[in-house]
């Protein structure tokens, strides 16, 4: 299969602060990234469609690039197979696919795709997680070489409520003295993941490779937890994008937590306003609070941000990447990238100290802070907009 190339058209930063340090194609939609979903769908298309159509899709992929917020579908592949060379594809006023090869005609024309599925807000990652996990259960089982609960001799100390076939376990996944409810949707446990003693889990849930639900965790679906996370306390309808920790008690609900984040003990998010009105959230383009249309919305946190013990976040809070937050009382609704402090006392996180900490954190999980990542973090630090 041809290598997939992506471009970013998000000039208004509608997914802020998520995806700041990597392309949006790496964002986790349920159990898979946008890139992985494209790769899987194309492989299926090659295996099942007419050879001529599959070749046309392959040609387009090899000679063009995809919008990194465009969520793939069978309709998308069919449209690509019929797209004339040199004609770019648009949907919802955004470019979806554009030709990049010399085969392109000098004056490009445009074709429209109605109802294109494009990510437009970070909270879509948790509001749509349930549908994605349902749709992806069989692909997880196939990709992992996994088995469902009816095919596994589960330990006597594990209690499954609901259909056993909705519990799908990859090789190396462990369940210990826990309760798993599959009535509302699948529970997908990735390779080497673990659900520890005393945990109570309700699907839909995706638990990524090497991730752990710590003793006594209470997890309400739909929730998606990426690889190498450590999660304790209470979590409801939230997304952890990977390599992040919420190791202690505290509530996180209707939230998106970026990569390499750490929530200190008793960190809590409000996800419902006291007057039950719809939640407003910071828009970095307009530099103002704007309506989300959601009654339940908690915290959106960028990569490599951390909170100290007993930190409290209001409903609809947005924390930029690279922050270190601590102190009593509720924090501001918007905390810009590289903020250090809490309440009304803030300084800018020194770039050198930030990079030193990030390097140490990543090395603990066997990962390396790459020169490209250092370059991206340096650019982000140099172009700060300080707005609270």
| Spans where pLDDT lies below 50 across 5 or more residues | none
Overall shape: it is: globular
Q: Structural class, please?
A: alpha/beta
Mean pLDDT: 92
How are the strands ordered across the major sheet? 8-10-13-16-19-22-25-30-33-35
**Major sheet details:** 10 strands, mixed
- Assembly type of the chains comes to single chain
Report how far apart the termini are. 46 Å
Q: How many helical elements?
A: 7
Q: Can you walk through the features of this model?
A:
- There is one protein chain.
- The chain has 388 residues and is α/β, with parallel strands linked by helices.
- It folds into 2 domains: 6-112, no CATH class; 124-382, 3 Solenoid (UDP N-Acetylglucosamine Acyltransferase, domain 1), CATH 2.160.10.10.
- The protein is 21% helix and 28% strand.
- It is built from 7 helices and 37 strands.
- The strands form 8 sheets. A 10-stranded mixed β-sheet has the order 8-10-13-16-19-22-25-30-33-35, covered by helices on one side. A 6-stranded parallel β-sheet has the order 9-12-15-18-21-24, with no helix packed on it.
- A hairpin with a 4-residue loop joins strand 28 and strand 29.
- Helix 1 packs antiparallel against helix 2 and helix 2 (51-62) crosses helix 3 (74-81).
- It starts with 5 loop residues before the first strand and ends in a 6-residue tail after the last helix.
- The model has no long low-confidence stretch (mean pLDDT 92).
